[in-house]
Amino acid sequence: MIIYSTLKLGETAREVLKEWEVSYDDSSDAEVILAWPTQVTQILDRAPKLKYIQTFSAGVDGLPFDKLPKGVRVFSNAGAYSLPVAEHAWALVLALAKMVNRRERNAQSYMLTRKTLLVIGCGGIGSKVAQIGKSAFSMWVLGVSRSFKSQDFDERHSINELPELLSRADVSVISLPLNKHTRSLFDYKMLSCVKQNSIMVNVGRAELVVEDDLKKVLLERPDFRFGTDVFWRKNGREEFESELWSYPNFMGTPHTAGADSNREVFEEAVLQAVKNVRTLLTTGSAQNEVKVEDYL
Amino acid sequence: MIIYSTLKLGETAREVLKEWEVSYDDSSDAEVILAWPTQVTQILDRAPKLKYIQTFSAGVDGLPFDKLPKGVRVFSNAGAYSLPVAEHAWALVLALAKMVNRRERNAQSYMLTRKTLLVIGCGGIGSKVAQIGKSAFSMWVLGVSRSFKSQDFDERHSINELPELLSRADVSVISLPLNKHTRSLFDYKMLSCVKQNSIMVNVGRAELVVEDDLKKVLLERPDFRFGTDVFWRKNGREEFESELWSYPNFMGTPHTAGADSNREVFEEAVLQAVKNVRTLLTTGSAQNEVKVEDYL
To answer: Please, what sign has the CA dihedral across residues A76, A82, A88, A89?
Structure first.
């Protein structure tokens, strides 16, 4: 069994996979690929024996699902970034609530304590976001998810209740995967449902939100504040240049929540990915198997 | 017994003091003054019967202590702003940790989970800051204080241990009152003790920190990030214009943590002040009596 990895594994990660051969330059005999999603397209043609893909990223929306040979199983790295991304989501929420680094004295501060938090997508990140809201700010926590990974939700709802939930939430955090069910979920109609003086933060993927509709709502509703770590892809690449930076009710970060901006986070994430591969090769199943049909 | 208030009290606040006469224009028979500290100087000469001062603010450093008639007792509004100011402190900490609204992709994110938090001044604000750090981010919490108001401290220290504590803390939050013991505490020597890749936030008073020394350390240590809600007074007024805004490792807000930026916070704070006056007039003692000698 040969594993092909697009990243040179560190000592600790290599040790986890010591029972298997790991190649960094030849995928021709590889049955497992360890890669970032967008790297997979160019590997596929040169990996005829491929059985499993394990991504380094939590999101797998960048994978070429339509080109995957039938029977190839995909495993995401969901959960590997829960702590840093949840911290990051709260950084955006709080910066918007308190208008950090905006020098006008007339900006209103929004209070968080005992307000209502809505978490949209309650996997590893969303569950940690909920736990912080509950423990730090005694918030009432609403969750929207297919499956809940924690006990920190006061109410559990399904995605078709979103309009009503948005009208109740003082803070909402989007931590959904991007797939055929969630793409463009936040269009003009949905965004218009948000409560007066509320904050929304997106740490999922930009394309969950319709960019032009967001701009329209932010211009119409100066009381509504929006933050994002993720930006819309143009020609396949995230484009961080955006008119939004000039909006007074917008704050952002250029996709720095995850592995790119902290060495420790990156190494932990790689380690989780290789551990999952080890579990898979040892037991035949592993965490975070992706429902391929969600993306087709 | 006549109470003189510089603020017209709302209905709820007035109800709390219904047993006493409240004047808004004549202090000549007043035994109690309800005011912001800087308003007191001009009232003193026209309040010959003065016994008690209750401030609307938590800090009393703006009072003319040297001009107070002997025997006048002073009560601060400490605690009234604990929740909003603690939220605000965390907004600055997180914004600096994640470099919110800085568009450079190369800025390093600092992780908070399981790191060390140092709270300097553990009254109402500091205790809430500690509780958030512990519950939201599982931090190890060091406290420096004369008296501790909560159980959320893993270690309790005195102010003379500050240099060593600063060298251990990944995040430090200053929530001290400004008095003769604390003014200019954070000079070049003290600030130079901070740990590599650490964050310091000041929500007390600017003059706890020596402005020029701070600038020097921020220029020398790009890894050190500093945030403040409070600015140095020039000619008696907080001056929000500052070179610091242009520093890449600085973030701020123009004293918007407290009463000025949220109506609800303001009304709650006024209510706490009048309740304290009620307690004082009914029982002869009350919360937050100020040690006048700390300021002389």
So the answer is: positive
Tokens (6 digits) for A158: 């399904």
Mean pLDDT for each consecutive 10-residue tract of chain B (296 residues)? 94 96 95 96 93 95 93 94 96 98 88 97 95 97 88 93 98 96 97 98 98 98 97 94 97 91 90 97 95 91
Residue A138 at interface with chain B, using a CB cutoff of 8 Å = no
Q: Which of B139, B241, B253 to mutate to test the interface with A (most CBs of A within 10 A)?
A: B253
* Structural domain boundaries in chain A: 2-79+261-295, 82-254
Separation CA A126–CA A177 (nearest Å): 11
Closest residue in chain A to residue B101, using alpha carbons only: A252
> CB-CB: which of A95, A135, A240 is closest to B100?
A95
pLDDT of B259 reads 78
What pLDDT is recorded for position A236? 85
State the Cα–Cα distance between residues A227 and A89, nearest whole angstrom. Answer: 9
Q: Which two tokens stand for residue B173?
A: 């939050």
> Residue A212 and residue B165: Cα distance in Å, rounded?
49
CA separation for the pair A119, A145 (Å, rounded)? 9
**Which residue is it, tokens 């790297």?**
A39
What is the architecture, at CATH level 2, of domain B2-79+260-295? Answer: 3-Layer(aba) Sandwich (3.40)
pLDDT of residue B151: 79
**What's the whole-number average pLDDT of chain B?**
95
- Right CATH number for B82-257 from 3.30.300.20, 3.40.630.10, 3.30.420.40, 3.40.50.720? 3.40.50.720
Q: Which CATH superfamily is domain A2-79+261-295 in?
A: NAD(P)-binding Rossmann-like Domain (3.40.50.720)
**Closest Cα of chain B to A115: distance in Å?**
13
Hey, which residues does A289 pair with through a beta bridge? A75
CA distances from B25 to A155, A213, B22, B30, B281 (A): 52, 53, 10, 11, 21
CA B42 vs CA A43, B47, B54: distances in Å: 79, 10, 16
ipTM: 0.92
Split at pLDDT 50, 70, 90, the class of A46 is: very high
At residue A115 the predicted structure's pLDDT band, cuts being 50, 70 and 90, is very high
Give DSSP secondary structure letters for A234-258.
ETTEE----GGGG-TTEEE-SS-SS
B135: chain A residues, CB-CB within 8 Å = 135-136
For residues A78, A81, A83 and A86, what is the CA-based torsion angle, rounded to 10 degrees? Answer: -90
- Ramachandran class of A283: left when φ > 0, alpha when ψ lies in -120 to 50, beta otherwise: alpha
CATH 1.10.760.10 fits A82-254, yes or no: no
Structure tokens at B266: 């303001």
How many A×B Cβ pairs under 8 Å? 142
Task: Report the alpha-carbon distance of residue B124 to residue B79 in Å, rounded.
Answer: 5
